[in-house]
Amino acid sequence: SAQPATLFVIFGATGDLAQRMLLPSLYGLQSENLLPDAMRILGSGRTELDDSGFRAFVREALETFIPAAELNETHVTALLARVHYQPADVSNADSMAALCQVITDLRHGDVVYHLSTAPRFFAPITAALGTHNLSGPGTRVMLEKPIGTSLDTAREINDGVAQHFAEDRIYRVDHYLGKEGVQNLLALRFGNALFEPLWNARYIEQVQITIAETVGVEGRGDYYDSSGAIRDMLQNHLLQLLCLTAMEAPSAFEPTAVRNEKIKVLSSLRPITAHDVNVETARGQYTAGELEDQTVPGYDEELGRDSDTETFVAVRAMVDNWRWRGVPFYLRTGKRMPERETKIFIQFKAVPHSIFGSKAISEPNALIIRLQPEERIELELLNKTPGLDRHGIRFAKVSLDFDAQEEFKALRRRPAYERLYLDAIEGNGTLFVRRDETETSWAWVDGILAGWEQAELHPSPYPAGSWGPTSATHLVARNGHEWN
Ligand code: BG6
């Protein structure tokens, strides 16, 4: 069984993700004394650096991306003392051999590799590790997203990695699973008796899962343009949130039980094809607009060329099983939305019969689980409007509102990678994505992509700073719903 890692290797250690998230997360773990005492950290990448050059790079990343108040020189020094660097070029066998020699020298037990590179390097890197006897028991490999761009390409990557690593030692990253609010979704559902009895088609009218971002595509145009919102966000983050919202109670909070339940949800997704893409999906691309008091350029302008890639997608997902029969799960995500907001909105059905007259009860109950930017849970209820009313009881919508920041005062905003790194270091795969999950979600997304192509459904424009194209409004309105 897994032992705590003695060596943590990051491939892509000088990349953007490493600077912003990965190195700061290692610092976070260090600052809470959660890294195994003797664990070394080895960075690797194409950039030519020596140990001290990389230490300077790490220090700079920490100083840039961690709030000054959270930086403590003792912890920085302790982290840097663990750090090494070895440049490597995957296409060069000698260079990979040199890297593997360093790994062999530094490890004295379990190793974790985090492949934070473009996915085309996953198979070659694991092959080199295999060749140098560095992929056997006691080694674990974390794969950064995206795992492919379709079912076929995902399979190819998974097959390549599987030649050297057993599935239970492959940790596919979906960083949403490392977010505090996402884990809290499980706590809320399975730690409280209150919600579970209502958590089904009998009491729930509709579910909406939104990941809205204000950012555009920044400097990642080339990656993003070959991907689009459906591959970049829906195939992974949105479908993972859907799984956690819709799944049955697992027998235990452990890798096999949790992932077995998630896969049942994914397997129950009703396919969407060319016949129904026009009614079941909406596709958009932002044009210039006003956002946060600034005029921002359109996607084509940002990219520097015309493009048919969507920056917004909304889908009505139907989970065809006993629990969810007939309940729409609306999923949507977009760039350049009016605000950054990740939330799950659960609307319950109205009471079966109103004793107060037909007009009195206009707003059914709702539970809103906000994951970002703040973690907050709101339960919307109807309350009597106080006072003496001749016409009987009138209602006002009120909210029971829980704000995690307020409740847990000393709460530090942790990058999701702190949780994921700690789990990988300790050998716990519960919050990672299993092969069948990736492939089942790709199969469903491939259906939509093929449908778009066949039906020639191109992205409709929406101005930056709006909630997406009008087709998204129609998507929910068709079922008598509105976006929350
Ligand atoms: C990444 C996507 O997986 O998630 C990005 O590639 C997106 O396009 C990001 O911006 C959003 O993550 P978060 O943690 O900021 O919600």
Question: What gyration radius follows from the Cα positions, in whole Å?
Answer: 24 Å
Biggest pleated-sheet summary = 9 strands, mixed
Question: If strands are numbered along the chain, what order do they take across the biggest sheet?
Answer: 16-15-14-13-7-12-11-8-17
Helix content range = 25-40%
Percent of residues in beta strands: 15-25%
Question: Tally the helices: what do you get?
Answer: 16
| N-C termini distance | 46 Å
- Which distinct ligands sit in these coordinates? 6-O-phosphono-beta-D-glucopyranose
* Global geometry: globular
- Return the average pLDDT rounded to an integer: 96
Structural class, please?
Answer: alpha/beta
Total number of strands: 17
Low-confidence stretches: none
